[in-house]
DNA sequence: GACGGCCGTGTAATCGATTAACTACTGCGC
DNA sequence: GCGCAGTAGTTAATCGATTACACGGCCGTC
């Protein structure tokens, strides 16, 4: 910056003013400064600027698993929304581990992100408190924690799950195997509670960990126990269940029905296409980013609750259509 | 930091030494400082530290599309490798747009990443030159550019594609539709060249843009032109082709054969499972991160060329088995 | 013609760390 | 008792920006 100033025959203050679009500098001075910048290929140091202004124009996003298309879509939406407001997003991959999640959150705080978007790995409010104590704007996404005091953005699947349960009962299923998420996550618990409640005793629950392998294992157990329908509460576990079903040579929906929480672009291409509860991922990501930006600007955004929809496609059998 | 120093009755220099594990401070002093840090909940400001040390312990990664599982896997692998060396990764999503790619690269440079990993959207070496001119360590990943002067990490699919072509010819296919990538990307061109060369005149090529929609359109055109086999040069275009095939009620492999470049976890679950050329994504990501770290440490890593493998699964028909 | 106001720039303090150079103290040998 | 080496800790410069305040020139008014 000093070089630029010297080159243009002005002080660094003037260079800074030109850079930040202040009213002061003469058009002529401005021109000289811009020429010098161009000539020297100068680019301002964002670190120094942030240090001085205490604003990084950066949002932190800590998600549970980048390989899960659900979170990838959310990340993408958050990024789009943030960018359109001049913010940049730094993504942290917690890998469904509370420990790694904490590490990432701290790293992001150390780098002074202007706000943080978090998909908490567990119910534990400890980390959320830590962030709040630091006074950093925080919005929870997809999942919440016990006694959360910050805005939460998530999808409500109750209606869709209730409708799904009704279909299954109506189709005469007697044992519905539920491949549930971890009981220490809000989404894991809530979805399972609503769904088993609506099934009224027909449900048999096995908990997985939101990963493919656990889906296969849970499916195996449930099939062995005589389940006539399987419902996976997350798309990766759904993939695992599907693999197990195929591995055993069972046919959907003839031998067993299947439904999955979270849609995927390839679900409609299976034979039969998979019935799902589809979350509005893009909306969730955008809404979360908007809430966080509002919080950063001193407003108090409300919680956002979007609605997940039941998409019937055929994997439950004719009964559904 | 001043607060901590005051609290512990020492100077900021001493606090800094404790923080950085310097030899100087007495165990007793160290203890007092750590206690003060603990008590005040102090966390060092990474911006200030980086400004002073000119090292951010951060790698930039600019990929073409986060929603493409191929890149998501790479990102994941890069992150793992980087983290294990104490580095953090900032991901930028270029969305297959050269403009957005340039924006991201500049943003990352402004934030003074210690090194940059780039999956270039096009062949154009302009951006690569810009980065090199800035003296920032750079490694190209998956794709290269014309006259690249930096290390490149990629997968070689020639062997697999040649074998694939041989199978198709052997099975008696007369018109093979190739859904190619953009001709201004190295992967798009190379894969197509090798494959059509090996097919010796049986190939009909339509270019897509590495996205699902373009895959469907290309497939439609090729099917209309009487293709008996379709090969998509990227997994998203493969997904699009599959959708088009299903949409027309065609059966694989009876009516048409299909193979895709890039594997996906759900390809084996289709009926029939899809034959693919599988790239070693995790290896690629790790290798790229390692090369970049080597470059940062002043070494001169070689280009890395990994091998993609043909995985036969059934979507080419009995001929393949 | 002198004075007050306004405008474009420059000077210098500041953000929060790191670190070279210096100071103060301890203890040892002669 | 004195000097010297060695060690623990402090002072202050520095990284590259932003910005409050000061300064000097120009113009209009009485």
TrEMBL record, chains A, B:
Coiled-coil stretches are: none
Cited Gene3D superfamilies: 3.40.50.2300, lambda repressor-like DNA-binding domains
Kindly give the PANTHER family that the UniProt entry links to this protein: HTH-TYPE TRANSCRIPTIONAL REPRESSOR PURR-RELATED, LACI-RELATED TRANSCRIPTIONAL REPRESSOR
Any idea which UniProt keywords this protein has? DNA-binding, Repressor, Transcription, Transcription regulation
- Signal peptide, first to last residue: none
According to the lineage, what is the superkingdom? Bacteria
- Molecular function terms, GO-annotated: DNA-binding transcription factor activity; transcription cis-regulatory region binding
Does this entry carry the keyword Transcription regulation? yes
Report the PROSITE patterns cross-referenced here. HTH_LACI_1 (PS00356), HTH_LACI_2 (PS50932)
According to the entry, every stretch annotated as the HTH lacI-type domain falls at 1-53
User: Organism, per UniProt?
Assistant: Lentzea xinjiangensis
**Keyword match Ligase:** no
Family annotation (Pfam families): LacI, Peripla_BP_1
Name under which the protein is recorded: Transcriptional regulator, LacI family
């Amino acid at each position: 910056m000093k070089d630029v100033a010297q080159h243009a025959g002005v002080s660094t203050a003037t260079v800074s003013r030109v850079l930040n679009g202040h009213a002061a500098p003469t058009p002529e001075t401005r021109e000289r400064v811009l020429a010098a910048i161009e000539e020297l290929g100068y680019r301002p140091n964002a670190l120094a600027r942030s240090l001085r202004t205490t604003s990084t124009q950066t949002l932190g996003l800590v998600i549970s698993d980048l390989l899960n298309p659900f979170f990838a879509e959310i990340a993408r939406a958050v990024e789009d929304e943030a960018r359109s407001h001049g913010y940049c997003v730094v993504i942290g991959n917690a890998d469904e581990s509370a420990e790694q999640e904490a590490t990432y959150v701290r790293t992001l705080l150390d780098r002074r992100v202007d706000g943080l978007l978090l998909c908490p790995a567990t119910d534990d409010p400890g980390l959320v408190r830590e962030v709040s104590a630091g006074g950093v704007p925080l919005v929870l996404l997809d999942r919440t924690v016990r006694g959360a005091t910050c805005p939460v953005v998530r999808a409500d699947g109750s209606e869709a799950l209730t409708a799904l349960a009704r279909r299954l009962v109506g189709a005469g299923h007697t044992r519905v195997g539920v491949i549930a998420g971890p009981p220490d996550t809000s989404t894991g618990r809530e979805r399972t509670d609503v769904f088993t409640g609506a099934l009224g005793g027909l449900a048999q629950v096995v908990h997985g960990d939101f990963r493919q392998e656990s889906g296969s294992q849970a499916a195996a157990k449930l099939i062995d126990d005589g389940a006539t329908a399987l419902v996976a509460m997350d798309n990766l576990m759904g993939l695992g269940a599907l693999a197990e079903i195929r591995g055993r040579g069972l046919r959907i929906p003839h031998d067993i029905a299947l439904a999955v929480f979270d849609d995927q672009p390839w679900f409609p291409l299976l034979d039969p296409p998979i019935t799902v509860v589809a979350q509005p991922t893009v909306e969730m990501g955008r809404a979360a980013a908007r809430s966080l930006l509002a919080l950063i600007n001193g407003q108090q955004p409300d919680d956002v609750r979007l609605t997940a929809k039941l998409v019937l496609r055929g994997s439950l059998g004719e009964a559904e259509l």
